[in-house]
# Entry
Amino acid sequence: MSENKQNNQKKQKQKQKQNHNTKKQRRKKAGTQKTKQQSKVTFSADKLTEFSIWYENILEYADIVDKRYPIKGMPVFKPYGCFMQTKTMDLIEKEWESQDIDRVKFPTMIPETFLNKEQDHIKGFGSQCFWVTHGGLDELNVRLALRPTSETAMYSMFSLWIRSHNDLPLRVYQTCDVFRYETKQTRPLIRVREIPFNEVHTVHSSVEDALQNLEDAWKGYYKVINDQLGIYGLRLRRPDWDKFAGAEHTDVLDSVMPSGKVLQAVGAHYLGQKFAKPFDIKFTNKEMKEELGYMTCYGVSSRLLATVIGVHGDNKGLNLPSTVARYHVVIVPILARKSKVPHEDLLSKAEELSKTLQSAGIRCKIDNRQLRPGEKYYFWEMKGVPIRLELGQYDYQKNEVRRVLRINSEKVQHPLDNIVELLQKDLKFVDETLNKRALEFHNSRVTNCSTIEEMQEAIKKGGFARIPYYSVGMDGKEGDKKVHELTGGEVRGTLVGEEPPEEGTLCLITNKPAKVYAYVARSY
# Structure
């Protein structure tokens, strides 16, 4: 073999190795670039075209979770992320308190005998349970499950608490962790094995009261999710083959993520009397006759926070609404070397400003680290803080600050005399802008389709394809398989309250008479 040929082969192998390492590094660290001048963090992964990489990186660099804990699917919430998750659940809890729903706290472990009482339920969750088989070194007579959800735990007690119609409605909630043995690829906040969860469980004396309770629940969810978190989705009724195990029907809120896949943010279920019978949840009605209770349950998980992060974020990093932001404002003192104002005076003014804002309920952070101002700017943009206040020597002399908005980089000078009022208006503008953008994004991802090609194109684009469909009963499952073959998506359900297709409309998949409009999407 000639020396030139050997050198060429050697160079080719080195290039291949270099390309491999570059790709590997991009997957792992695509979100960070550092210059010699400063350690600023920027994102090279585009959120819309490389969402998976963007998402993994922002969770790491914004200190939301640390997934290095040695159990798959059980990441650690770091302080910044824990605050956001707690705030999200606080909003939900406040809504339930306003609806006079009482808080409870149930044990983490559930006897296997309880799970076995509702056969559809155990079929749905049995394979996903973590089982405790020993206490110390002794084998237990009855296995204990780490709760996959709380129906069976709560309902065993409801039967002891309810005697008369005067005890109804019974409505309780808890915020806890539930456990699912996920065998698929896990993803922080979206698909995990230990799931932060808020759940409500109710018992009623009539079908009408139970269904009205669900409508009230949806009003509460819309208030929090649309108005306070600024995210949107479709309320869909799941097909019979995909409803909650043991439910009469299941409604969900499916939100489109930047990847084009949808994420279930809410699950709400009418249980009818399916759980009341095996758990003996009875009451004496006004006619003094014994009757089974009518039940509902509904809940949200950390997927709600994942939706907030994914929908509002951009290529700079997080972009947070004020409701869940750890800090509303970051103050950056500009400590120039040749400043005419002593550094101590600038820092003292920053402290004074911080106290003023904190006392007005504006969460504030002073960044007085020994870093260049530009590094701090990039850092807090990545962390999604809505407002940055820059305080330099000339600002100090004029008794003002430079205000910079995260959502659009708008810069204005704010006088300190009425700073609280001005920043409150700014925060309101930030929330309204994020809300408007999210609604526009959601609306752009719902496409009416009248041909197979249009459906395929809509799914390729990302979001929902609305198609005429023959059935969401069990007989519609075969058509769903065809949908998956054609698009990689699935029938997610029907829009609650939507009118059926006109008579004579044919199913896009089977050519049978269409009874509903189905919404097709790829999902997490």
The chain has three domains: 79-312, 329-441, 446-521.
